[in-house]
Every structure is written in structure tokens, then in C-alpha cells.
Write a structure and sequence with these properties.
Layout lengths: L2 H43 L5 E11 L9 E11 L2 E2 L3 E6 L5 E4 L6 E7 L2 E7 L3 E2 L19 E2 L4 E7 L3 E3 L1 H5 L11 E8 L4 E9 L2
Antiparallel strand pairs: 1-2, 2-10, 3-9, 4-5, 4-12, 6-7, 6-11, 8-10, 12-13
Length: 208
């Protein structure tokens, strides 16, 4: 056997092998880099705030206007947790008949009118609104619309309906079948952080 030819053949076969190995190494490095970058993006976008809320729902209560004008309401008060912009939240309600209602920020879900002291008022906006009378009235102050304010510890969100309201009130906005809900029913209230799509709070509430 010609030893010179043998070594020449082997040396020629070495180049493709090294090339393939280099390609494999580069591919592994690129894959690791992409995986690391993707993991960083996922961990950033999936971070959700934490909060605990107290939810109350009352139907046909007697308030300051007396028995001639009963009212209904849902109040959602943050007890403790992070400050959260309501533009990043949506609320899901499920009534006793399993009707699901999705409440989105700045969706203009409320449009009604009422007459008081011979004057008719029109109100439109997005419930639940910020319950802070010093900031103005719902329907006339955009800052009170769900989607335009921030909830934090102590802040209360409210939707309501008085017997003299005509149209889509806050309660119809929160519960599509509000008229069929009665005292003693249990409903589900779920609060979702939109950017992360995570449920940050859920509770079962009895209507009183």
C-alpha cells in the first residue's frame, strides 16, 4: 500500500468533518441565545400584579331617596395589593344561570337617562366607575370611566342602577341578565390582568 496516498486521502476527508462540526457548534450557540432571549421576553410579559378585593352586590336596596327609589349596586374594593391601571383589567361575571358577561375597559358599556326634579340627565361611559364623588359625576367626568383610573388599596369601583334609570345601566353592563338575578343568587366575579391574561382575583358573591 502506498502510505503517501493513504495519508493524503485522510487529510482530504478531514475538511468536511470539521466544517460540519463547526456548523453544529454555531447552531447550538444560536439556539441557546434565542432561547435565552425568548425566556426573558416571556418572563417579562407574564408578570401579573397581585391584589385582594372585597365584592358586594345588593339588589333593590333602600337608600337616601327612600322606598320609592330603590337601587342596586356592585362594589369592588381593593383591600390590599398593587396599584393597577384599570386599562389593564377586565372583569368577567357569571350569574346563577351561567350567563357570562365580559366587562372591558373603555368599552362604553353604560348608556342611560333619568329624571330628577323635572330635569332629565343623560349618562354614558364605562362601568364600574371610580367611586369618588369629589372627582365629579359618572357620565360627565371621563376620569371615572373603567379604563381611565388606577385601583389601589382603599379604592372602590362601583356600578349601580336606580329604579328611575332608563337604558343600559351599570348593572346591565356588569351582568347581561341582571333583571333575572334575585336575592340569594350566587354569582362569580373574576378579575383578569389583560397583558398577562392571568386571573388575579376570583370570588363567589351572594346577592343580598
Amino acid at each position: 500500500m502506498n502510505k503517501k496516498n493513504m495519508f493524503q486521502n485522510n487529510s482530504k476527508a478531514t475538511s468536511p468533518v470539521i466544517g460540519v462540526m463547526l456548523m453544529v457548534v454555531v447552531t447550538v450557540i444560536l439556539a441557546a441565545a434565542v432561547s435565552s432571549y425568548s425566556s426573558g421576553m416571556v418572563s417579562t410579559t407574564s408578570t401579573a400584579p397581585t391584589a385582594v378585593f372585597d365584592v358586594k352586590i345588593e339588589k333593590n336596596a333602600i337608600g337616601d331617596m327612600g322606598p320609592d327609589y330603590p337601587f342596586s349596586y356592585i362594589s369592588i374594593k381593593e383591600i390590599t395589593g398593587d396599584a393597577i391601571q384599570t386599562k389593564d383589567l377586565k372583569i368577567i361575571t357569571i350569574d346563577a344561570g351561567n350567563t357570562v358577561t365580559e366587562v372591558l375597559p373603555n368599552s362604553g358599556n353604560t348608556d342611560y337617562s333619568f329624571t330628577s326634579n323635572n330635569t332629565t340627565y343623560d349618562r354614558s361611559g364605562t362601568s364600574p366607575y371610580l367611586n369618588n364623588p369629589s372627582d365629579g359625576y359618572f357620565g360627565t367626568s371621563p376620569d371615572k370611566n373603567f379604563g381611565n383610573y388606577t385601583v389601589k388599596s382603599g379604592v372602590v369601583m362601583v356600578a349601580d342602577k336606580y329604579s328611575n334609570y332608563d337604558g343600559t345601566t351599570g348593572m346591565e353592563a356588569m351582568f347581561s341578565e341582571w333583571n333575572s338575578i334575585k336575592d340569594g343568587d350566587w354569582v362569580t366575579v373574576r378579575i383578569i390582568h389583560i397583558p398577562s391574561q392571568k386571573v388575579i382575583f376570583q370570588t363567589e358573591v351572594e346577592v343580598i
